[in-house]
Design the sequence.
């Protein structure tokens, strides 16, 4: 022990005590998914506080020279009967009573109970030092090492803090309608019990409108339970905003919902409002589950096998390489589904898994913050099979179910999720997200981190050719753009079961008028060929500015593939907006084919004898009383901005701007939408808004040509040279840096954000500008390289699809099906099973790979 004491004394300067703000990784290895519960435990560096599994700790020691590590091992406690046990040997689980995470009474993310053992291990000989051993060592050693051990044990693990973000879903705000709520003197008195819906006679989930006393049933939930929406329909007809859930009223309060504010609210005058209809709060008892209790119940059911596809069959669990489940970290099924599919693609396997030793060897000092390291770690975890093992029985009685348990040990992608979501307003949260948006976000991060070397995102990248033909002059304009996903529209008017749908709608209206329960929902059957035709058929542009006739006229736009990618992603546009701009999901079944031939949709380019539209810009929008000086087209050229008048102010359609603002979009974004769509109406402006919401300068003020931030109009001399140098030092060209600064009013931080979110635009400046060079002065220069796209035959086979269940992308659940060795496999978070009936007609994202003949 004297020798160990001397070693500790020699490395004492490398042993730190954690301070507030230090990131302590004591639950997960930086290079693998090893944890204190894994075989061999976890070694935490007592200097950097990084965690390493037994497989990687020697590598860290050899690279850094660090010798002192805190070794943490955890073993599951044996469950014993206690006083409240029923005698089965399994103590009853404490059910959540509060819609919250990380708060007393809320969902407990650490239900497992472990016994933890810690000791200091000295490398390279792995000498062990326990707390008891420290007692006999010199005071300076004992004090420093003991403080470090205690600090590491007490510190909040980074992964734990990310997983258990405290969230309380029961915090409610006072309704803006409560203080001045008008109540009708209609003589209505509500009995203390025996309520039922006045329309359909439903006796559960009953709400009373606090304005007129109408007693009606509540909403239908996404899983089919709940009411028949009669209370909501009453609000839509009358505008009476507040309702109270009967059966939840107690002397302490009740559930009050504001339809106008679309949330559960507080009503400080609730006793007064209830007494108006003869209800005495002090004598009421709760007989119905509150909305919080119902939401808790729904949240407890979401992860169960019964509410996802293929619930009617017994599915065979699968184990082994490429069959690894992923833990749901709280609404992270969108991430799990996307990453499972991506790591079946050879490009991602080659980039991150085949070269994993090289990736890890080149990792920076903090690998937890390195994109390439964490993606490689995730890929290896999914493909190796090391974590594809049956999960230990959590204590539930297995005799209650004859269905094989498909749960795996799996992997928990906490480090990965934290890294790819960092700084993003949505993906950094525990809320449900759109899988398509996450796929594009991840592809963007791959592009950003693969500026040199192999880029696996090229597997998806393709060129789209848009051809616009002026109907008056018959002259054409060709533009190309880079894309990664084909978005297929859903033509509801092409449903093959239209008569059945009309009959179902007639029965629904009849049931609504008579108060009978609504009939079962009939799903629209849409041919895939109709979706493809809707994508490829010519679109009529009614307000196209033609440079040939120097006026607005009608044109047709045709979209075709200028290249076919190795892997084609198709999104079915199920999520759309109603007439009131409220998001809704189309309930459709589409006969998506196993094989696909898109050869007929290949772009042909300019045809022999076809004339192109002159490259003259349209006149800018301006007020009638502004003197026109040097407008492009009469004097000057695109590169010479000296003739633009900075005083030009656009005439914007106020009504369109107002409509957009009423939907909650920023004023400046609304003004830009109307300006850049040429006052062509609300539809065009809304499309512009939806297509530019992720832009860093989305809400920045509208800047007109002639101003310093208008792209293409700022003289290079006016740009801060130090900003240019900073961006160029990051690996971008001077032209790209110039464009980024112009687009963001010379603000360096915004320019960096902008340049990373416009990589494709920058890499294909010629293409994205419609085939024009940046100007006459550029003609003598070497043209910038276009985007790297792969091309080949347009024949594909389906190998994966991601499905969504729920009423919107903000709720519900995602699973994915992947074809492995001619067998369809369903990945539902930690459950991995052989699929019996893959629901290919109900998918959201479809993944095809090229068929090589």
Sequence:
């Amino acid at each position: 022990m004297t020798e160990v004491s001397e070693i500790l004394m020699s490395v004492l300067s490398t042993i730190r005590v954690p301070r507030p703000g230090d990131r302590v990784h004591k639950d997960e290895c930086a290079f693998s998914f090893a944890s204190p519960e894994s075989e061999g435990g976890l070694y935490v560096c007592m200097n950097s506080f990084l965690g390493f599994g037994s497989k990687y700790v020697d590598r860290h020691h050899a690279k850094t020279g660090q010798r002192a590590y805190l070794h943490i091992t955890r073993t599951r406690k044996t469950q014993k009967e206690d006083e409240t046990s029923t005698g089965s040997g399994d103590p009853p689980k404490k059910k959540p009573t509060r819609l919250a995470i990380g708060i007393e009474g809320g969902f407990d993310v650490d239900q497992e109970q472990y016994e933890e053992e810690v000791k200091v291990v000295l490398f390279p000989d792995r000498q062990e030092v326990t707390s008891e051993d420290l007692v006999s060592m010199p005071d300076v050693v004992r004090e420093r090492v003991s403080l470090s051990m205690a600090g590491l044990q007490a510190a909040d693990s980074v992964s734990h803090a990310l997983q258990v973000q405290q969230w309380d879903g029961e915090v409610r705000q006072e309704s803006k309608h409560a203080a001045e709520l008008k109540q009708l003197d209609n003589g209505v008195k509500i009995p203390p019990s025996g309520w039922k819906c006045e329309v359909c006679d439903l006796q559960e989930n009953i709400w009373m409108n606090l304005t007129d006393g109408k007693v009606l049933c509540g909403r239908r939930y996404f899983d089919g339970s709940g009411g028949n929406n009669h209370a909501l329909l009453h609000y839509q007809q009358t505008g009476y905003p507040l309702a109270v859930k009967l059966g939840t009223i107690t002397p302490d309060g009740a559930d009050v919902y504001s339809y106008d504010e679309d949330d559960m609210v507080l009503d400080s005058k609730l006793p007064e409002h209830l007494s108006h209809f003869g209800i005495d709060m002090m004598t009421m008892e709760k007989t119905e589950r509150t909305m919080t209790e119902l939401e808790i119940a729904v949240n407890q059911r979401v992860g169960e096998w019964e509410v996802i596809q293929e619930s009617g069959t017994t599915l065979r669990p699968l184990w082994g390489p490429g069959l690894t489940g992923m833990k749901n970290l709280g609404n992270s099924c969108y991430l799990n589904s996307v990453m499972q599919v991506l790591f079946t693609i050879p490009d991602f396997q080659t980039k991150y898994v085949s070269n994993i030793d090289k990736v890890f060897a080149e990792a920076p000092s903090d690998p937890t913050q390195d994109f390439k390291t964490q993606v490689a770690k995730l890929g290896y975890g999914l493909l190796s099979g090391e974590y594809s093992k049956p999960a230990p029985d959590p204590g539930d009685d297995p005799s209650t179910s004859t269905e094989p348990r498909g749960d795996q040990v799996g992997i928990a992608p906490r480090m990965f999720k934290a890294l790819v979501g960092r700084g993003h307003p949505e993906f950094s949260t525990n809320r449900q997200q759109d899988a398509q948006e996450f796929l594009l976000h991840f592809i963007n991060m791959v592009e950003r981190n693969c500026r040199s070397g192999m880029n696996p995102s090229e597997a998806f990248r393709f060129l789209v050719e848009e051809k616009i033909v002026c109907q008056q002059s018959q002259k054409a304009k060709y533009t190309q753009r880079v894309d990664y996903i084909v978005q297929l529209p859903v033509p509801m008017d092409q449903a093959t079961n239209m008569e059945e749908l009309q009959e179902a709608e007639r029965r629904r209206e009849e049931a609504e008028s008579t108060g009978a329960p609504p009939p079962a929902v009939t799903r629209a059957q849409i041919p895939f060929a109709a979706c493809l035709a809707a994508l490829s058929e010519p679109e009529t542009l009614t307000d196209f500015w033609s440079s040939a006739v120097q006026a607005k006229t009608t044109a047709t736009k045709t979209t075709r593939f200028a290249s076919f990618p190795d892997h084609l992603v198709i999104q079915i546009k199920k999520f759309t907006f109603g007439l009131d701009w409220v998001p809704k999901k189309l309930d459709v079944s589409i006969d998506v084919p196993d094989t696909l031939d898109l050869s007929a949709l290949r772009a042909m380019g300019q045809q022999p004898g076809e004339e192109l539209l002159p490259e003259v810009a349209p006149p800018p929008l301006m007020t009638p009383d502004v003197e026109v000086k040097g407008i492009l087209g009469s004097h000057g050229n695109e590169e010479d901005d000296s003739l633009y008048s900075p005083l030009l102010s656009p005439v914007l359609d106020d009504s369109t701007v107002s409509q957009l603002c009423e939907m909650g979009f920023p004023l400046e974004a609304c003004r830009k939408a109307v300006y850049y769509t040429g006052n062509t109406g609300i539809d065009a402006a809304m499309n512009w808004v939806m297509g530019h919401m992720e832009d860093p300068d989305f809400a920045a003020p509208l800047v007109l040509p002639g101003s310093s931030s208008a792209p293409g109009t700022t003289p290079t001399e006016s740009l801060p040279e130090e900003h240019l140098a900073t961006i160029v030092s990051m690996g971008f060209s001077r032209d790209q840096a110039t464009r980024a600064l112009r687009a963001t009013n010379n603000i360096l931080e915004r320019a960096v954000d902008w340049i990373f979110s416009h990589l494709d635009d920058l890499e294909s400046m010629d293409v994205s500008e419609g085939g024009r060079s940046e100007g006459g002065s550029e003609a003598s220069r070497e043209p910038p390289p276009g985007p790297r796209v792969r091309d080949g035959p347009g024949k594909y086979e389906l190998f994966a699809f991601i499905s969504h269940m729920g009423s919107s992308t903000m709720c519900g659940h995602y699973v994915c099906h992947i074809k492995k060795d001619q067998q369809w496999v369903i990945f539902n978070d930690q459950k991995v099973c052989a699929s019996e009936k893959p629901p290919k007609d109900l998918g959201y994202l479809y993944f095809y790979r090229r068929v090589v003949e």
About this structure: The mean pLDDT is 78. Residues 619 and 634 are 10 Å apart (CA to CA). Residues 498-514 form the longest helix (17 residues). The chain is about 25% helix and 15% strand.
